Amino acid sequence: MKKKKVASSVLPKLVLLPLLLGLLSGCATYLEERRADQLLAEGNTEAALVMLSQLAKSDPTGYRLKHLQVRDGYLRDQLQKARRSAAERKTSAAEEGYRTILRFDPQNEPALAGLAALERDAREAQTMAQANQSLKNGDTAGAMRSLSAVLAENSSQPEAQRLVQGIELERNRGLTADPALSEALKKPVTLELRDVGIQTVLEILSRTSNVNFVLDKDVKTDIKTTIFAKNTSVEDALNLVLRTSQLSKKILNESTLLIYADTEEKKKRYEDLVMRTFYLKNADPKRMQEMVKTLIAPKSMYVDDRFKMMVVRDNLDVIAAIERLVATYDIADPEVLLEVEILEVNSNGLLNLGIQYPDRITASVFGRAGQPGQLTVNELRNLNRNSFELFLPDPLLALNLKQTSTDAKTLANPRIRVTNRQKAKVLIGDKVPVITTTTNQTSSASMESVNYLDVGLKLEVVPEIHVNSEVTIAIDLEVSNVVKEVRSTTGLLAYQIGTRNASTMLRLRDGETQVLAGLLKDEQNNNSAGIPGLGTVPGVGRLFSNQTSTNGRSEIVLLITPRIVRSMPTPPAHVVEFPSGTADSASVRPMRLTPAGQYSGSDAQLTQPAAPPSEQPSAGAALSAPPSQSGTVQGAK
């Protein structure tokens, strides 16, 4: 009996214990949530997230969603701040922001990418510093290696791109331009050599200017030349000697020149060619290509209409000549603003004066039926005055005293901007529909089509702007109107169009106004209606008639004023006229010698008498030729 009582007393306690533990746990969770909310309100989001994370682990159903919402919002704000700091070059703040994000979301891809970008920027900054230091030290190759490493990792790095472009530009200038010759080749020298071998001449010039000459194996050293040149530069003398000896040179460096035979085979071997791309702004690439081929004939050329691009491959002299041609031809088309005033002055008058009499008087016969014209035979026999009815118009007479006058003025004032030698059109009016019916002979089916006629004022102008600021204008003016409608037997509607045309060409100065007038249209109609015989009696005829007179006058006046917006550009004098070489080769550097010098080559001897003793050179270095030759050379001190 006692055991049963003990069991019955313990059982309720065992049931209440889990309930009490659950209530205590719920109270603790509620207090933690309240604490997390308080931290959020205080701005301590990180501590709140720690508590919400613990709550989400203990009760995923109740707190996981809230934890994710708070975390995502916080991480979003931190990501924006970190990116802003990275953009402002605040590396420490940006790195701290990204690492804060990763503490709460280790797999956050934007934060991982941001940290990787910061590390890359740090490496780029270090590599860029090395590249700049290499450039300062003159180590272009080392700088290019550093810059290539940067661009391999980040191809859009602007500073690296700028430095690479600068290095390539300087390198390209050095490769495409001839090396600068020594100043010794510019100093004046006096040469008096007769029938001297080309090798001896080169030795003399080499000793005078300290310039080395390298001769191709096929250069004939037995070529004889004669030159008398006073106070000319070594370079000019050398050019003349080589040209008349059918030789050519290539500058290797400032003090070394390669001499080779001036043949196509040797040119292909030694002559450096340059690839030059011209981006045309205004000229047509095809026409530019035709002009260059006709005047200069470069070795290779290609044009692309899509980019308005022309690519040329040839030596520097030819490229320089093409540059002058492009500067001359690739100019913007001139434009002109045409101020046009078009006036249509209409004057119409109407005079209606006289007495208007009735056109007719009618009489009808009535029978008993009351219908006019219906009579029996007996009624016809018994006709009397009551059988007739006389009908007179109402009013019987009308006195017309009417005169009207109408003046109308239509003004159109278009302003048209048009490019040189291009057509501009102006239409002020309507499009009148004209319906055409086409019948199929096989199926007898008909089909209607609608065409439109331009009716109104139509103006077409084509200007041509000249260098002296004058404008030639081709004008085509047409004024049309619908006179009347014409309907065919099949019911189709057509129109009778009245038109006035004027075509002319005139030349005006900039701002000059020209008036085109005299397009007149006069109409006059006189109508008379009256009593026959009496209406035409002189003097009193107007008492028995009505006179109607109408007149109309229309005049078209055109005023046109050209105002040049962009005049015909005139290239500079050095572009309009420049040396272009010989018939064999194009060049903008003509062969010149000082006026006192005379030259003769192996195929064109120019003799010069011996100078008086007082004019013989007495200063400078004098080099004698071999015994079979004679000559002197005098250089500047």
UniProtKB/TrEMBL annotation:
Similarity remark: Belongs to the bacterial secretin family.
Bias type Low complexity, positions: 616-631
Organism of derivation: Variovorax boronicumulans
Statement: the UniProt record of this protein carries the keyword Membrane: yes
Gene Ontology annotations of biological process type: protein secretion
Residues of the Secretin/TonB short N-terminal domain: 211-262
PANTHER family hit by this protein: PROBABLE GENERAL SECRETION PATHWAY PROTEIN D, TYPE IV PILIATION SYSTEM PROTEIN DR_0774-RELATED
NADP as UniProt keyword: no
Protein name: General secretion pathway protein D
PROSITE patterns named in the record: PROKAR_LIPOPROTEIN
Keywords noted in UniProt: Cell outer membrane, Membrane, Transport
Location relative to the cell: Membrane
Classification via Pfam families: Secretin, STN
GO cellular component terms, semicolon-separated: outer membrane; type II protein secretion system complex
Superkingdom of origin organism: Bacteria
Residues covered by region (Disordered): 575-637
Biased composition (Polar residues): 597-607
